[in-house]
Amino acid sequence: MSFSLIRNIKKIFSYKKQQDKLECIHGLKVYSMALIIMGHRIMFFIGVPSINTNYAESFYNNVETMVLLNGPIIVDTFFSISGFLAAYLILQKRDEKSKNSNFIFLYIHRLIRLTPVYALIVAFYCTIFVKLGNGPLWEERIGVEQERCISSWWANLLYLNNYINTDKICMFQSWYITCDMHLFLLTPFIVWVLRKSTKIGFVLLGCLISMSILSTFLTTFFGKLDGILLLYINTLKDPTVDQTFKNIYIPTHTRASPYLVGIGTGYLLHRIQKSDYKLSKRVVYIGWFICILTMEAIVYSAYIFYIPSRPYDPHTAAVYSAFHHFFWSICISWFILAISTGHGTLIDPLLSWRPLNSLSKITYTAFLCHGGIQLYTAASLRTPMTCGVFNLIWYSLGDIALTFTGALVLTTFFESPVIGLEKLLLGSNTKKREPWQKNVELKIDSKTANDDVTPISFIHVNSV
């Protein structure tokens, strides 16, 4: 039954209301995935020949455009969600005394869930992709990408590509998958410590977060790197030429703090749900106000790094680089805690909209395939593009539609059958599952699945 097309599609579109109010996770994942796709569209929008080059230059001179130019911060949303779901899922399995909660099983489970479909996409880049089109930019884009994948495919599949061959990284967004895998390896141990002693567990989390922040600060300061990944044309054409990308943006140790904050959030929510603790209205109002203000400050304050006349200041760059990931993840964690405890009346309907439940199940495959779709459109150009807000939105909406369509096909025909086989081989199927398990499951930053379906977070991640 794992290869039943009808059964797999039904699982993706099936819906059952969750009792623990975690449906907001679906919305956070899908909206964040859409923003990541839009952010990567900018990469292929400005980084290709254009008719109105003045528009592209003016793009960097307006503080309003920081919503787009500082878009990579959205990746920290996925890291936070991934850490949260990883910890929360493990704690739930521990409560059930499930055999699937032991360390070895969790690691094998994660490898089987992530690797086969990932390997399929890497193989596609190495072989078939280059034969699917042509154009004046085809070899420069697709040809180079194929060469990189042939050279570095093994680093991807060993989850080492954010440290090895970073100048030849296969699939520019794949660094996120590697980071997520590395951080997941720590999660069961951290959760075990938290269960043994909450105090020692949070001291451990605090130490790990501090180490990540400190390493980011020191690397930025002594390397005289930028406070953020500056999305200038050269970087957009090829991120691997940027030292900030290679030394700050993609290494696991510099991106760990949001994931670790997510682990702490998962533990806190688990404890809150098992107790009668209630947040006061005053705390809720103050929390929402501070978080919204902080997120706006993080996004727009990065404009100082784009001011041409401003001299480089290593102190400012190092402080921003080290702390903005952490504070963004604190805000995302507040969103999750507040909404999951019934304090998100205005935003909860937007995040818990029923169709998002199905889309969230295919966000992992969406994260994997969206870059290829955008790369294809850029490589097959035969005339310069016209830059503009309308065209950016138009292309982004097309990217989102094509990406989720491709993700649906990939999940139905490949990922879901693999997951079914995994459950058959490892005996992880159970007759009775909790409602939250049918709707929320870990994948990358967030593996959501109904039965056999597993999606990201980016994303996934997924910027990546």
UniProtKB/TrEMBL annotation:
Keyword Transmembrane helix: yes
Domain Acyltransferase: 24-411
Keywords from the named record: Membrane, Transmembrane, Transmembrane helix
Keyword Transmembrane: yes
Molecular-function GO terms, alphabetical: acyltransferase activity, transferring groups other than amino-acyl groups
Transmembrane segments: 30-51, 71-91, 111-130, 175-194, 201-222, 256-272, 284-306, 326-350, 393-414
One protein family per Pfam: Acyl_transf_3
Top-level taxon of the source organism: Eukaryota
InterPro entries documented for this protein: Acyl_transf_3_dom, O2_lipid_transport_reg
Name assigned to this protein: Nose resistant to fluoxetine protein 6-like
Biological source species: Agrilus planipennis
High-level lineage: Eukaryota, Metazoa, Ecdysozoa, Arthropoda, Hexapoda
Gene behind this protein: LOC108738051
